[in-house]
Design a protein that fits this description.
The protein is an alpha+beta fold. It contains 7 helices and 5 strands. The chain is globular, with a radius of gyration of 17 Å.
Length: 197
């Protein structure tokens, strides 16, 4: 797939089919993530891959759906919320693989400036690379950002070491035929500022 096509095709998938995903594809996705830039040159990500059905099901139960939004969506944002909010749990349950990008907690929760957030930013660089690779392979990804309670329950489940933080929960699978993609909101090009604001 051509590069621009991959970028345009990447969407958040929240309904998966039960078609089997090959482990070599997950390895290729992790490899793409691991080529992302890191603030200190050290590539210190940890990725926990989960494909044990029992663990995925328990992990899904650690997550709460977001509370419901507008009943009749008036715009693409509300439409996205209406579709996404009730699917936080099921989009994990339906995934064939889960990837948990995990970082050292360090100064993350006491962040007062950008430097404190650099390791956090590293994982987001890796996450986007992984989404793009998955798209190229014809796979879909979901993403849930966990609350502190959800993180703690998931860390108990996977026996994560102390002092770490969970960036998000990525679900990977082939999109189901019913997967819905809310209308995209176009970037307002007036927000590009040249030489001065
Ligand atoms: C930082 C970040 C956090 C997000 N958290 C969630 C989430 O918790 N649950 C969810 O369903 N989608 C989440 N999303 C996905 C966005 O809703 C989605 O990217 C956005 O609606 C644009 O749609 P698209 O990715 O299909 O282009 C998150 C995206 C980003 C960048």
């Amino acid at each position: 797939m051509e590069f621009n096509e991959v970028i345009k095709k990447r969407r958040m998938t929240r309904e998966f089919s039960n078609k089997e995903v090959q482990y070599c594809d997950i390895e290729a996705i992790i490899e793409a993530g691991s080529l992302a830039p890191t603030c200190n040159h050290l590539r210190q990500w940890d990725f926990v891959i989960i494909d044990d059905r029992m663990i995925i099901n328990i992990l899904a139960k650690c997550v709460k759906n977001y509370s419901s939004s507008a009943s009749k969506p008036k715009n693409p944002y509300e439409d996205m919320c209406n579709y996404a909010f009730p699917r936080q749990q099921s989009m994990i349950e339906e995934a064939q693989f889960i990837i948990l990008p995990i970082i050292k907690e360090n100064s993350l929760y006491k962040a007062t400036n950008m430097f404190s957030l650099m390791h956090f930013a590293d994982t987001w660089c890796a996450i986007e690379n992984m989404f793009l690779k998955a798209t190229e392979l014809g796979l879909g990804c979901s993403m849930h950002v966990p609350s502190m309670e959800e993180q703690n329950n998931i860390f108990n489940l996977i026996k994560c070491k102390k002092g770490y933080a969970l960036t998000c929960i990525i679900g990977i699978g082939y999109p189901s035929e019913t997967a819905y993609y809310p209308e995209e909101i176009e970037f307002d090009r007036k927000r590009i500022h040249r030489n001065r604001w």
